[in-house]
Amino acid sequence: MKKISVIGSGYVGLVTGTCFAELGNQVACIDTNQKKIDDLNDGRVPFFEPGLEELVSRNSHAGRLHFTSDLAAGIAQAECIFIAVGTPMADNGEADLSYVRYAVRQIAEALDHDAIIVNKSTVPVETGDMVAALVVEHRRHNINVSVVSNPEFLREGSAISDFMQPDRVVLGVSNDDARKFMLDLYEPLKARIFVTDVRTAEMIKYTANAFLATKISFINEIANLCECVGANVLDVDRREMRLAIAYPPCRPRRQQGTDRARLR
Ligand SMILES: NC(=O)c1ccc[n+]([C@@H]2O[C@H](COP(=O)([O-])OP(=O)(O)OC[C@H]3O[C@@H](n4cnc5c(N)ncnc54)[C@H](O)[C@@H]3O)[C@@H](O)[C@H]2O)c1
Q: Which end of the chain is less crowded, N or C, counting CB atoms within 10 A of the terminal residue's CB?
């Protein structure tokens, strides 16, 4: 049993925290949104995800899962602190890291013991270095923090099974203690685990998103061609492209909405 805190109780943070509690760990989920915390404490999950409400309820009642808006209290016992705050696209197209920076600053100011900070938010390469530097800049105690990158690949609608039976788990670690801790934490999943350095793990997530965007753009172009020649793109996709475009199931552009919304 490990003591874990998760900062950000949105889609990724809540699924992560709840699933780690289900695996037997002691988890505190933290959010700045007091209404969200009040709802969760009342057993209401603020969005629909199959199976999540039941898991939240079971683990809350078992005393393994707690919700708070008090970050200092939420990380007081934590061996490991996950960051799962939003990283929306800024006006210039870059990831807006202000929520990550603010969360790290809050952690550094409150933390009075050594811990591992695990970044689950989708962030550009070198964010791990930034997190480590921010901790040193803002810490108030003589603490040592290891930074880990553990990018998230879950899909909304199948988030619980994506977490519990992942295609792969990527761990970017900076030392042996963090490596051992993270491997122990994920051990119950019996998943394929790739251990890399921090920058490589960050790069893996961006590469996965870029490849997904490429696949979607490619099938959209094929759909346009199909329209021109009167071919059926669904059959083309199903018969010829299935291996290349295994995920997500591709649909032609008109049915698809904004492609960017799929890349998280
Ligand atoms: N949703 C997905 O399908 C998905 C999949 C893979 C990766 N991601 C990535 O995971 C990250 C989180 O995504 P999400 O969809 O869960 O976002 P979200 O917007 O649903 O949740 C983020 C939460 O963090 C909270 N928050 C922000 N700053 C905080 C702070 N300082 N302290 C405590 N709470 C704070 C917000 O109130 C919000 O509830 C993003 O980087 C996203 O790109 C998302």
A: N
Q: How confident is the model at residue 249 (pLDDT cuts 50, 70, 90)?
A: very low
Residue whose CA is at the smallest distance from ligand 1 atom 39: 10
Measured distance CA(191)–CA(189) in Å, rounded: 5
Q: Which of 34, 118, 152 to mutate to test ligand 1, by most ligand atoms within 8 A of the CB atom?
A: 152
Query: Token pair 């202000």 is at which residue?
Result: 98
Segments making up each domain of the chain, as ranges: 3-198, 211-263
Q: Which amino acid is at 128?
A: G
Residue-wise pLDDT for 183-227, tens only, equals 999 999 999 999 999 999 999 999 999 999 999 999 999 999 999
Question: Could you tell me the fold of the domain covering 3-198?
Answer: Rossmann fold (3.40.50)
Q: Which of 9, 12, 154 to mutate to test the pocket of ligand 1 (most atoms within 8 A of CB)?
A: 12
The number of the ligand 1 atom at minimal distance from the alpha carbon of 121 is 41
Taking the C-alpha atoms of residue 249 and residue 216, their distance in angstroms, rounded to an integer, is: 9
